Amino acid sequence: MEGLLDGLNERQQAAVEAPGTPLCIRAGAGTGKTRVLTRRIAHQAAVGAIDPQRTLALTFTRKAADELRGRLAGLGLRGSVSAGTFHSAAFAQLRTRWSERGVRPPELAKDKRGLVARVAKQAGIQLAKAEMLDAITEIEWAKARRIPPDRYVEETTSLRRWPALEPSLVAGLYQSYEKEKTKRRVVDFDDLLILALRDLNDDADYAEARRWRFQHLFVDEFQDVNRLQFDLLRAWLGDRHDLCAVGDPNQAIYSWNGADSDYIERFGDWFPGAAVLDLLDNYRSTPQILAAGRAVLPAGAASLASHQLDGPQPTVTTHAHDTDEAAAIARALRDAKGPETAWSSMAVLARTNAQTAKLAAALRNGEIPYRVRIDANRTEGDTGTGPSKSADAVDVATFHAAKGLEWPIVHLAGLEQGLVPISRAQTSAEVAEEQRLLYVAITRAECELHCHWAAERAFGERTVSRSPSPYLNAILTAAARGRTG
Predict the structure, then answer these.
(1) Any idea what the Cα angle at residue 13 is, between residues 221 and 263, rounded to 5°?
(2) Which among 18, 28, 260, 368 has the fewest CB atoms less than 10 Å away?
(3) In degrees rounded to 5, what are phi and psi of residue 122?
(4) Cβ-count burial of 123 within 10 angstroms (0-12 exposed, 13-18 middle, 19+ buried)?
């Protein structure tokens, strides 16, 4: 117990010590989510409420899983609590099952793009690189929502999802992709969840054995859970309710990939009798930045209280062209660099991958070391004047890739109608997700936030006139007031 409650505020301590489950901890940006989660696991173990050897902590990326394990080890739980991703937990279950039954394991598909390209070629379909990625995204979305190929067209229509490719084309590729995997005896990452769930549903005795193995479940980033993951989680739980979920509805930004924030927003409906606690004290950002973030969220979203000193108001700069925007950001980064300001303390964030490519080129031309963050686990190195493995480099990332990260100085590029919000966001739910995505981008900043937009932007060989994002006025107005509520 020694030290487990040290340094916690009242709400954090209540979340760590809360008796009983199911429990949902809604942790806003910068409120110490991982700290509270790991402290709660350690505290529950210390008071005898859980057995660490029977505890499973789940998250969504290898990086997050590594952080969980590291923090738990620092709290005296090295090697006792199982911490990993949904996929790694499902894969471990399957490997044990296959070993027990003497089954030769299938191979894990390492080249999903190659398999889709193969079935497309067999069908006489030519797909460009971007179209190939669109097809893979749709297949992954469908599997995350447990939609089989023969229901894909119907479900996309009823859910008002308008994929970049013709739905019937996607359905055909999806069907052929599944058959090709069966033929080659390979599985993809989504199949790991599907097969693990199937085993639990088909064999009651086996399911009970698995539930005995892991009796206490903790889930991080619960707002990112999709239907397939949720169904597997329920199968792991059975009729028990020993679940603690941590997440933030205001950072639910992955519905395009199958995530369903309804599981955290209506946690009490899914788990009757659940307690729901809110963490509302932000230790990352100045009041001005939190006020700007709150201003872009949908009505009714929870407000956070800053525990930082006042900082400069966010700025908004208009540029004649996107090339001017990129060059100006590069100059601003160089001007901010000093003996006490590292390159790695700054980031440039944009809505799309195409924007990050142009921004990276401007930094390279300006001889500014940078790295492009592709996703939470991987970076693509090109640091201009230094080696790609340099730790001191400006981060360039999309809003999505920036989630979970933070920097003292953040530049947001391309805050224009059609990008923020993205033009394909048509329904109220899609627009609300775009607002949450901008909120995530804003709240990556600790001290300084600089917003940019261009009056003209090049898309391929076309130059198009642009208008500012409708959220820019709200950002400036709220930040000027310097308050979060």
Answers:
(1) 25
(2) 18
(3) -60, -30
(4) exposed
Q: Is a pLDDT exceeding 50 seen at residue 380?
A: no
Q: What is the mean pLDDT of residues 305-321?
A: 96
Sign for the CA dihedral angle at 292, 297, 303, 307 comes to: negative
The pair of structure tokens assigned to 337 is: 């660099």
pLDDT in tens, 171-209: 999 999 999 999 999 999 999 999 999 999 999 999 999
pTM beyond 0.90: the answer is yes
Q: Would the pLDDT of 484 be above 70?
A: no
Q: CA 332, CA 407: separation in Å to the nearest integer?
A: 15
Q: How far is CA 280 from the centre of its chain?
A: 20
